[in-house]
TrEMBL record:
Record flagged with keyword Translocase: no
Signal peptide annotation: 1-26
Superkingdom classification of source: Bacteria
Protein name: ScyD/ScyE family protein
InterPro entries for the chain: 6-blade_b-propeller_TolB-like, ScyD/ScyE-like, WD40/YVTN_repeat-like_dom_sf
Keywords: Signal
Organism: Arthrobacter agilis
UniProt entry tagged with the keyword Signal: yes
């Protein structure tokens, strides 16, 4: 998710060479739980339709939903009866990353980046009593620090002769390189006290902690994801039209660990969804757990298809929107396997409020031609049974 300047074929290479398990991350571990519950999907209600790129949703007081219309530059509220109101309108700016706490609504603003003629904007903001206040200017911080600039992505141990055999269109992402100077804050989570705002940045490949009391920002840069090129993977790439020289067999490839959503658990840890740069490739996404105090990351579940949204319920179940798989899955408390819960068209985000699951669906345009906005805010009742 580094922007449109990356060649599609090179981005496809980064995805195809990514695995959710490797030297940089621990093996999947279970989520602690004292009880086991089965959950199924019940009655569904479309609360809102005609939304433009609804990639984020949060639920606040009085069952009010806050939805980002990312492609329309708007933050929209939807009450329990389906009435819509525009809270923030930013023409030309992507509005996203929505979360809410004690009546305040937190969101992100993004524009520009590498190769774009637009000004570089990457803010974390809060809507307080109708007034927007910027909490952190991540564009300025990323410009000054390039947080993943010291990371090493691409092939790590090729000989000069082998590197010279890689096609020029693949070389920018295939050969060793650091992260671009780019911030794309994509999701937020807020501590119960409201002091800390956590930000998943899909451009900087980092999780930021904004301390609203001290007005400071700290960063946890996520480690690259490591993959060894096997004969099976080499053949799979060739089948996709990505032709690499045979000398890459056995070589190591580091991919960007793009975070797409995060939630703060009752255990004080952050739960993240992550995909390897481009979400079209199946089964390479993961759910991870991050200790914000130590920066230690471990994998909870892998093998997910474009996981872009995450929610936790009080029982320890983890719900995941798998965008291009057309489904919402659940990782039951105490397990590491994602099981399909319900089918949905292009689900981008999920949120839990009591016994209801909220999801944004039809979140992306479905065809090459411009079409009227078709995004949906869907509410599904969850039925639990003791196991």
């Amino acid at each position: 998710m580094k922007g449109t300047s990356t060649p599609l074929v090179a981005a496809a290479l980064a995805v195809a060479l990514t695995s959710t398990a490797g030297a940089a991350l621990a093996a999947p571990t279970s989520v602690p739980s004292q009880r086991s519950w089965a959950v199924t999907a019940g009655e569904q209600t479309e609360l809102a339709t005609g939304l433009l790129g609804p990639l984020r949703v949060a639920i606040g007081r009085g069952n009010t939903a806050y939805v980002s219309q990312n492609f329309g530059g708007q933050l929209t509220s939807v009450d329990r009866n389906g009435a819509l109101a525009t809270l923030v309108d930013r023409p030309g700016i992507e509005v996203g990353g929505v979360s809410t706490n004690h009546g305040e609504v937190y969101f992100t603003e993004s524009a520009g980046g590498p190769g774009s003629p637009d000004p570089f904007v990457a803010n974390v903001s809060v809507l307080e009593k109708g007034t927007v206040r910027i909490l952190a200017d991540l564009a300025a911080l990323e410009t000054a620090n390039n947080y993943d600039g010291a990371s090493s992505y691409g092939f790590q141990d090729l000989t000069p002769e082998c590197a010279g055999l890689i096609a020029p269109e693949l070389a920018p992402l295939a050969l060793p390189h650091g992260g671009e100077t780019y911030s794309h804050p994509y999701a937020t989570a807020v501590s119960n006290s409201g002091r800390y705002v956590y930000v998943a940045d899909a451009g900087a490949n980092a999780v930021f902690t904004v301390d609203t009391r001290r007005n400071t920002v700290s960063a946890t840069v996520l480690e690259p994801v490591v993959t060894v090129i096997t004969e099976q993977l080499f053949a799979s790439l060739a089948d996709q039209g990505i032709v690499l020289p045979e000398c890459v067999l056995g070589a190591t490839f580091n991919s960007e660990p793009v975070p797409t959503d995060l939630e703060l658990g009752t255990d004080g840890l952050l739960y993240l969804t992550s995909l390897p740069g481009v979400p079209e490739d199946p089964t390479l996404g993961s759910v991870r757990r991050l200790d914000p105090a130590t920066g230690v990351v471990e994998v909870i579940a892998s093998g997910l298809t474009s996981p872009t949204g995450l929610a936790l319920d009080r029982r320890g179940n983890i719900f995941v929107a798998e965008l291009f798989a057309g489904r919402i899955s659940v990782i039951a408390a105490g397990t590491t396997e994602a099981v399909p819960l319900l089918e949905a068209v292009l689900p981008a985000d999920v949120e839990i409020d009591g016994k209801y699951l909220y999801a944004t669906t039809n979140a992306l345009p479905s065809g090459p031609e411009p079409a009227p906005p078709a995004g949906v805010l869907l509410r599904t009742r969850l039925d639990y049974s003791r196991q």
